[in-house]
């Protein structure tokens, strides 16, 4: 069957006119032309197609348009429908006339339709151009070169193909055949699995709780400091290192394990497990009589003193001892110090030492755990 002539048919998109009825379209058209001038009104899945009897009636609808549900509606010819094209990555210096010339290979550029995109509420351009094409080719390429400049094209009316399946009924980001991007593990940087950053903090805590001498950052490493001193001080390095260690030992001996700044009003309760956490720990609630859940939303390593004082205030059984301390912190610290992981480690170390010191000064046989 040969192509039919549809010169008298025009249409508009019904994308934002949900549940549109024939009578609504008819009433709107009658404000522009008479009912007797209409041959048909067809509602398709995406468009409303109107066929009239005379070309002057068609031209009047295209020129004037109609109004449906307080929304202005513009008609487009079926055989010469306009395609709206968005051009990305164009250099600012390229003139509109040059762009018009280049785009003419894909269709007839509507005169006066080209305009430059700007940043919202400013007059600063963002490198985007918009134009309209008549008799556009069936499929526009996703990328094309204007001389040495590579640009991207996007168009409506299903003129742009998906870069994954070459279909035209959906954008690329909605394609079902889009390959899944493999996420990398935060810990080992290898694809195929993921590991939340908080696990690293818990591993650091576990090292400190079970091995007092294990786990420290580079700038606090005694060997690193000694090597740095030897490089900078030369032949006097050994004397300086010896003096530094002597001062450190004298300073440590002058501090008692309980000098943490926390009120010394603690009464050791019965054998229980103490949870020190943030909102993730608070959600557990008081799930067991053998557990004291002192978690507080928003808690972090930095405010461990406040968290411990809060823990003392909620301990109502004064005839027992704390057997285990579960530290469930780190999420809030990572959120606040994303750009400085060393700061998170330092705060974690300080918090663990504070907890150890607080409980060891009452009972040195206690066991500590983190999760």
Automatic annotation (TrEMBL):
Gene3D superfamilies associated with the record: SGNH hydrolase, Zinc finger, CCHC-type
GO molecular function: nucleic acid binding; zinc ion binding
UniProt xrefs under InterPro entries: SGNH_hydro_sf, Znf_CCHC_sf
Protein's name according to its UniProt entry: SGNH hydrolase-type esterase domain-containing protein
Annotated organism of origin: Mytilus galloprovincialis
